[in-house]
Design brief:
rod-shaped; 5-stranded antiparallel β-sheet; single chain; 8-stranded antiparallel β-sheet; alpha+beta; 13 strands
Length: 221
């Protein structure tokens, strides 16, 4: 899923979630163990600890032990996630990617885009509409060009398009017949990574955010 994020151009690399500190639980565990040992050693032989009470204390002991183990496991997972982010950051930050999106934030600079190279067509028509659904621009794209751009041109030619959110639609034709309608793949540079609902998401300089699996890295060769 692709979204327009007003703060996606930040250069910070972030990750959600917090590290879990096991120090407090470990201290409680050690204290409980000491108290239980002392209680057993100093019990009155004529009035030993009630067996039910002893079982309950052992259950508490077991519960604390499991909490410590769980806490250590969570710390290990958090560490692995941090390492994963470091690896992904080195591979993706600053890289040029193509992000398929219906909506584009226009801010005065040309919007560069490509047609999904996996699609088959011999002609492509770009239609740009504003937030009211009005068509502001339409053109037939050069079939021999790999990359295209919209520089804010409008149909009435009186003035360029104002800054705002616009919808891009690509109608693909084969032999004069429309064979598909596709989103444009907006050319962007990755500016940050974040974790959201267990998914790695990329933020870009075009204010688009998308899951890592939904973007296409463009070769720098």
């Amino acid at each position: 899923m692709t979204e327009i994020n007003p703060v996606a151009s930040s250069t910070a690399t972030t990750t959600t979630g917090s590290a879990v500190n096991s120090q407090t639980i470990s201290e409680d565990f050690d204290t409980f163990l000491q108290l239980l040992t002392a209680q057993i050693q100093n019990q009155d032989p004529l009035a030993p600890i009630d067996s039910t009470q002893f079982v309950e204390q052992l259950a508490t002991f077991s519960s604390l032990e499991q909490q410590v183990q769980t806490n250590d496991t969570l710390e290990s997972i958090a560490s692995m996630i941090g390492d994963l982010h470091s690896v992904l950051a080195s591979e993706w930050l600053g890289e040029e990617v193509a992000v398929a999106s219906k909506y584009v934030a226009y801010e005065g600079s040309p919007v560069e885009f490509e047609v999904n190279p996996a699609l088959s067509y011999d002609q492509a028509v770009l239609t740009v509409t504003d937030t009211q659904g009005q068509t502001v621009w339409q053109e037939v794209l050069d079939p021999n060009a790999e990359r295209h751009q919209w520089s804010g041109s409008v149909l009435d030619q009186k003035a360029g398009a104002p800054d705002g959110i616009y919808a891009f639609q690509l109608d693909l034709l084969q032999g004069g017949q429309r064979v598909a309608t596709s989103d444009a793949e907006i050319i962007s540079k990755v500016t940050n990574l974040a974790t959201e609902d267990g998914q790695i998401r990329l933020g870009t300089d075009t204010r688009l955010t998308a899951d890592l699996t939904d973007v296409r890295k463009i070769s720098s060769d």
